[in-house]
Amino acid sequence: MKNKSIKFLLVTISIVFLCFSLLPSSISANENQIRSNTVPVSNQLKITFGTIDKETSSLILGEQITPLSLNGYLDDLILSSDDINASYELVSLEPSELQEIKNLNPKFKPTNGLLLNYTDLEGNIQQVKYYLSTQLIEAPINSDVSLFAVDTIFDIASFTLSLKEYKKNKTFWNGFWVVADGAAVVFPGIPAVSGVKRMIEGSTTVLKPALSKGIRKYSALQNISAPKNYKGKGWERHHIFEKRFASKLGTSSGKMLAIFIPKYNYHYQITQRMSKKIPWYTAPGKTKKQIIQAHIDAYGELWAESGFADEYWEFLYKFSRYKQYD
């Protein structure tokens, strides 16, 4: 009995050590840099987009921070749109045009107009106009540095399973990516979603194999083998919050949380839903809050359309409500 206890203690200590070894080695240095105000900085471009609300004729503002030039950002926006008719044109503004805008913020001083051409749902070419202002700002060169650098997906918003429950159901839980810390067993990166075990038990073909590989940063999930083939179509790695909004959310594609998703039907559904929620040509004017809410609504709608029966959509809906995207 004593030997078993010692063995368990040694295994637990080893796993804890492994967890800490996975943390970025530069965290302490980065935190010290922040506190001493010595974080190296570089110029980035803040683009403010103004667009006229058709219902109220009022001006709505959105922001984008990018390391690219204005033309570089717009070129990238067009290339990533998957719209064969996508194009843009920067035009000059007449002072009289600005005077006609309601509730014009005096701090917003647009210097250009932006015309975006896009294809609507009926296949017709349409155009939307934005008013632009740009400003160079200082930003940390290392985007990993933040005031919360010591927090990782290993110790915030994690779904925690009691050690007692783990021991009682080892056969069920052993297939999952779990970390023992001596007091609990956790799924790193999975928020405390209500009813996770019930969802997993009810979904043996989608949610269970997906979670068995874990929710990880996209760059990490790329190194993980996919679950067993699903309906002959295989799996894809899915950014829970779409990668096209990475810079809007203040992160990068590789750092965003991702999960395996079946190529068959599932990935197509959420991609199509989000392309309707936030078409590419409206994205520049969207706020971080609007982007996050659009994802929550999209997952919720897909869950509802399944008759509230699909555990995969239920899980992603409840996960997205925690607003943890990296």
Strand order of the largest sheet: 2-1-5-4-3
Helical amount: 25-40%
Number of helices: 12
**Radius of gyration in whole Å, from Cα?**
23 Å
Mean pLDDT: 79
Total beta-strand segments: 11
Structural class assignment: alpha+beta
Q: Give a quick account of the main beta sheet: strands, pairing sense, barrel closure.
A: 5 strands, antiparallel
What global shape is seen?
A: elongated
Poorly predicted regions are 13-37, 142-157
Strand coverage percent: 15-25%
Oligomer: single chain
Distance between the termini: 43 Å
Q: What are the defining features of this structure?
A:
326 residues, alpha+beta, five-stranded antiparallel β-sheet, three-stranded antiparallel β-sheet, 12 helices, 11 strands
3D architecture notes:
The protein is an alpha+beta fold and 326 residues long. The protein is 34% helix and 22% strand. It has a five-stranded antiparallel sheet with strand order 2-1-5-4-3, covered by helices on one side. Helix 7 (196-202) runs antiparallel to helix 12 (311-320), helix 10 crosses helix 11 and helix 11 packs antiparallel against helix 12 (311-320). Residues 13-37 and 142-157 have low confidence and may be disordered.
